[in-house]
Amino acid sequence: MSARAHILVLLATLLSLALIVRQVRLRRLRAKYALLWLLVALALTPLALAPGLLDASADLVGIAYGPALLLVIGFAFFALLSLHFSYELSRLEERARALAEETALMRERLEALEGERTNAEDHGERIDTWTVHS
Amino acid sequence: MPESALAIIPAFNEAAVIASTLDELRRALPHVDLLVVDDGSRDETASIAKAHGARVLTLPFNLGIGGALRTGFRWAIASGYTSAFQFDADGQHDPAEVPALLAPLATGVNLVVGSRFQQAGGYTVGRVRRGAMGSLRIMLRLLLRRSFTDTSSGFRAFDRPMMQFFATNYPAEYMESVEALFLACSEGFSVAEIPVQMRARAGGAPSNRRLRLGYHFVRLHLVLLASARRRRVPVVLSGDAG
């Protein structure tokens, strides 16, 4: 890798780290996801610093071409991650649904109660006038 | 506890037809209570329904018929109803058939399905839809070892235990009626099918978009297969004092 490409990769890694930290500080990412992405960024940083590491570790597990190892791991990671997100989404959808049902039921109850109260007030007034006049 | 049955009417943008459906129900069945579940309509469905003597539950966004029904069941249970029936907002169902639909409930049946296909004449559907329905019917027959002539009918009556089960377990996605029928049978509820006449829809678009139908067709087979061997624990609803 040329020195220029090296610097570019390093910058990209640092930038993504900074982005994640910023998101966490602004509380846009929940801690568990922030942690996940921080770990990813941290795992990639040494590779950016020392490109030789990738080839060495690929050699260790018997993969001839270094970047292939990165692809395999990356693919597995994202597959698992999207599986997890599907699970989370299903759960959130179910909860949103339950909440929607609940608001419909509560709204009807509230309107019924308001109706009862208005009726009771009307009724109360009528009784008062009747007592006064007799 | 109300003696009468409750009509649960899911409605999504049915302002054009809801009034006549409600009026007709009220005329034919004066003792039935009307509950419209407004499924996130963007038109005047809710206010028209209210003006025509129905109780209205308004969902904040569209949940589909399954979600609307589930909300209706929860309301029915909380209000103490012992029987209810599902009725289309678009005038497809005939109020005159309701007493026949409710009758088996008195003999201990938990779920009554009004079938369009048990008698000659009346209702026809497109070729694709008929094929899908046929396949689902066969699937159900294989899994349940009993056959239904109309697995996707939305004209159904429920007793209280059935509603209690469905209040939390009614399937939410499109074509939910097939899944619900399967669930009821596999949970050991007593299910009966009776022949009914249905009419052409008075308004609203029939849900026959092919891609969507195809997707849900595949999905349903998967769901049915996956749940075939799964047992569920009986559901106890909190706050169900009647």
Question: What would you note in describing this structure?
Answer:
The complex is a heterodimer of chains A (134) and B (242). With 134 residues, chain A is mostly helical. Chain A is built from four helices and no strands. In chain A, helix 3 packs across helix 4. In chain A, 4% of the residues are buried. Chain B is α/β, with parallel strands linked by helices. Helices cover 39% and strands 14% of the residues of chain B. Chain B has helices spanning 18-28, 45-51, 64-78, 98-102, 127-144, 160-169, 176-186, 210-227; strands spanning 6-11, 33-38, 55-58, 83-86, 111-115, 156-159, 191-195. Chain B has a seven-stranded mixed sheet with strand order 3-2-1-4-6-5-7, sandwiched between helices. In chain B, helix 3 (64-78) packs across helix 6. Chain B is globular. Chain A binds chain B through residues 97, 100-101, 103-105, 107-108, and chain B through 37, 55-61, 63, 67, 70-71, 74-75, 78, 172.
Mean of all residue-level pLDDT scores of chain B? 85
Helix content range of the residues of chain A, please? Answer: over 70%
Structural Rg of chain B:
17 Å
Largest sheet entry of chain A: none
Shape of chain A: elongated
Short descriptors:
heterodimer, A: 134 residues, mainly alpha, 4 helices, 90% helix, B: 242 residues, alpha/beta, 7 strands, globular, disordered C terminus
Short recap of the structure:
The complex is a heterodimer of chains A (134) and B (242). Chain A is mostly helical and 134 residues long. Chain A has helices at residues 3-25, 31-49, 52-61, 66-133.
Provide the fold topology.
The complex is a heterodimer of chains A (134) and B (242).
Chain A: H1 3-25, H2 31-49, H3 52-61, H4 66-133
Chain B: E1 6-11, H1 18-28, E2 33-38, H2 45-51, E3 55-58, H3 64-78, E4 83-86, H4 98-102, E5 111-115, H5 127-144, E6 156-159, H6 160-169, H7 176-186, E7 191-195, H8 210-227
Parallel strand pairs in B: 1-2, 1-4, 2-3, 5-7
Antiparallel strand pairs in B: 4-6, 5-6
Helix pairs in contact in B: 3-6, 5-8
